Amino acid sequence: MKDGQKQYRILRIDEPDFGCEGRDDGEAAYDEITLVNEQGETCLVRMEEQQVWNMGLDEGMLVWVGKDGQIRGRCKRMDISRWSEKYQVRALTEQDVGAIYELSRKNNLYYEYCPPYVTRDSILSDLVALPPGKLPDDKYYVGFFRGETLLAQMDLIADYPERAMAYIGLFMMEASVQQAGIGTRIVEDLCRHLAEEGIRTVRLCWVKGNPQAEHFWRKNQFAPIRETQSMSGQTVVLAERRLK
């Protein structure tokens, strides 16, 4: 039990049937979700279809249900300790802001193309930032360590922008170990594990014209899809890698 919440498994998700008349404009669609707990007791939850999609819910998943009977989130998070076969991986927290700042501030080229320059306050914001409709359980802000040394940081959102996709919002290496194959090793191990977790596609963006970012991601099998605009108005290249 988690803060008064109980664990259930999704038995079935029934989508709405609007019949021949269809749905009125602006009318929200609701799915009916049948849940079962360890005692075999079942319950029915109605949830807006868009929220079901945002949470990445599917039949067979374990979920947390609050005291009000509503689904609060998925139980299962990916085991980040398996994201690298060579380096130690753990979640980064407020206690790591100093180490994150020291790693980030040396990557001047990144901030030339993607201002503003890093601050400790911006790091605190990044640690909790989420795309619209996503939940904290979908966010993995992690560090890759060799001993006590932070080699790389990554901000990854699961089941975004669609189910079975992962989105890397940030991947940044310690400047002193760049061009040594470490970043490629991390990305390869990560993609292998994500595929085992059912992720089929990994997406990310780089700022158009940034030669370092484009070279690295193309080398690691990320193919451009299209150019688009970032929230700050920059032209960025959206790219993806299909996982086997």
From TrEMBL:
InterPro entries: Acyl_CoA_acyltransferase, GNAT_dom. Transmembrane segments: none annotated. This is GCN5-related N-acetyltransferase. One of its GO terms (molecular function) is acyltransferase activity, transferring groups other than amino-acyl groups. Residues 87-244 form the N-acetyltransferase domain. The keyword Metal-binding does not apply. It comes from Roseburia hominis (strain DSM 16839 / JCM 17582 / NCIMB 14029 / A2-183). Keywords: Transferase. It comes from the Bacteria.
